[in-house]
Amino acid sequence: MLPSRFVSAVEGCDAAVMGRSHALSGAVVWLGGCALAAGLGARPAVGAVVVGAAVTAGGALLPDVDHPGSVVARSLGPLTRLIARGAAAGAAALRTASCGCCAGRGGHRAVTHTFVFAVTAGLLVSLLCWVGGDVAAAVVAGMAAALAVRGVLRRRTRGAYGAAGSGLLVGLMAAALPGPVAGWWWVGLPLGLGCLVHSLGDALTFSRVPLLWPIRIRGCRWAPLGMWAPLRFRTGSAAELLLVVPALMLLGVISAWTLITP
Ligand SMILES: [Zn+2]
Ligand SMILES: [Zn+2]
Description:
63% of the residues lie in helices and 0% in strands. The protein is an all-alpha fold. The chain has one domain. Helix 3 packs across helix 8. The longest helix is centred in the middle third of the chain and has 38 residues, at 115-152. The model is unreliable at 1-13 (pLDDT under 50). The structure holds zinc ion (ZN) (2 copies). One zinc ion is lined by residues 99, 101-102, 220-222.
């Protein structure tokens, strides 16, 4: 259970707390998709299942790069903290520049929480893996897996070891496996999907996201979209810990089981 002082410490900026749900939901969406494909007769290759799940889970933590307290911002110490600070500043500047009514609203849950960002990030990673082949795919998969594990485990030290180990494992696996379906260009798909899953997840919470930027809605390009108010839940709340996390885990186990059993 989450200590209450931790909740109050990050009140208003839940990027640090939400990591676990984001990473889990990313993995579950990919595993569920693979289970569905298998059910329809198109059994995906093992490499596509494992690497895809790792990349979707890691990708589902990426949009919070605009928040200095997030899992991804703290993943590689001062380096990622610096990147996160830059991303936050850039996102804030873009928000102010691209909509008259949005000046000074900050950079968190801005451009990195849009459909455009998910597609762009996915395309860039696809390009990288297409050009860089096995090595690029192994690096992307390994980093995504490490990030995802850091998001799921709560204790920071345990997280660091677990993250490094699982990152290495998935990276080696990706390098050793023959590229399913003619190469690794498709790795951008789970990455973009992960980003989208993140933004949709945020949209279910109290802080909504400008998913459809730059489309103008009621005069604002950063119009926050989200769940109908009574159904939203607060991040780090009992609803998340007792309902969302177990439900995600159950779905993941069912999907994985479907894929393992012949
Ligand atoms: Zn977010
Ligand atoms: Zn606006």
